[in-house]
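Q: May I have one protein plus its fold?
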Amino acid sequence: MAQAKKIPQWLNVSAEQVTVRLSRASEANGVQVDSLTLRAPTVRDIRNAQAGGSKDDEQRELNLFASLAEVGVKDLEGLALKDYSRLQAGYFRLVQDDEL
């Protein structure tokens, strides 16, 4: 039987959203924040991100995360790489099937 992956201390996961605690404060919508929350995506969110990112996978992901976090793409681009990686990990925890 496979063991469930341990959830890192910087990550809070629920069925509807994930909250990622940043390693350092960053600006989002003109305000300093120490965490970002991504809501669960819909099919519409995925389609909109794909439409706005042409063939660039990185841009599509930025568009999607910005939409889910309700922040600007520039805000995400200003994150430390460690914190962006945390967002990615949180997103994948949010969308994974419970059976996996």
